[in-house]
Amino acid sequence: MKKIFLLCFIGISILLVGCSSAKDLSSYIDVSFTGMDSMGSASYQIDNTKLIKDIYDYDDEIDFLDEKKQEEIDAMLKSFKIKLDKTEDLSNGDKVKVTISVDENQTKKIKSGEKTVEVKGLEEPVTLTNAEVEKNLVVNFIGADGRGSAKIENIFSNSIGNIVFQIQNDGSLENGEQATIEITEELKNTLSSYGYVLENNFKPKFEVKNLEAVAKTAKEIGNYEDIERMIDESVKRNYRDMFPESNYGSKYEIVLEKIMYRQFYDQSSSDNSIFSYNNSSDNGTLIGIYSIKEYTKDTESKLQRQLTAIHGYSNIILDESNKANVAEITEITNTMDDTYSMESVVKLYEGYGYHEVQ
Questions:
Q1: Would you list the domain boundaries of the chain?
Q2: I need a surface site. Which of 74, 106, 154, 211 has the fewest CB within 10 A?
């Protein structure tokens, strides 16, 4: 063993058991950093060309590899795994540890190891402030109080003018609350691509106002009795006696079964096509459910048909005195034939979000 050690020490070029010539793979790994300070990313590359040349004294432009040598090189290049302990959200000055694990059953030419690299060269980002966002976003609120939505116009004159900002709880906003920008990974990534980061405690605020007032319950409508009377008149208009002077006409028996109210239209509801109108933005709906019987006007007065009629008004928006402008409410009508029982009709409308007015 002493002789073997001596031969290795004096550099005699003889392949002997116990001589260690494995290369440290970490010296062939280049770690690079991209992105902005505090949001940087790390990646690595291996200089395989230099590694193969140093180990096998091989130049791919002039040397030829036999099949056995090629298989040996392929096995070496598959023998290791590389791991960086941090790859995202990096800042200048951070330390990234590179760990190399080599499967010695596949090769003896390289060895495991590790090294630490300091993060450098990340760009300094521009900080986007609350004040800038509040100044350069024009936010208006539309819809009903409690179901309000934000309409945003971005007037930034730089690259941020292309960004689509969104409001938290959009679609459920209430008058008087402070709406804030929704901070998503998509927003942060988009800002990052333009060289921006959000300031600490980023939370620009916009006061919610001008949303339409819709009564929670029917009895909160200041002129509820007027609208109820309009519903009753509408039904009687549609089912007034036909040819009252003739024995061959028809007469109607009209009975109010239920008055029901729904504050908000639910877009997931399936009733948006059952009425004779189709305006899915309407809120504040008061309806009457009537049983209708049609009789002949002859002496026998036979029952010709019976049905359920639904008449009402939607878009009942309240003013400062909690009254609705009856000139702006929308009339709605629907009928259900006698295959529907009154119980099933009421159950349907309860499923649509209506509640009986007591």
A1: 23-118, 126-207, 218-356
A2: 74
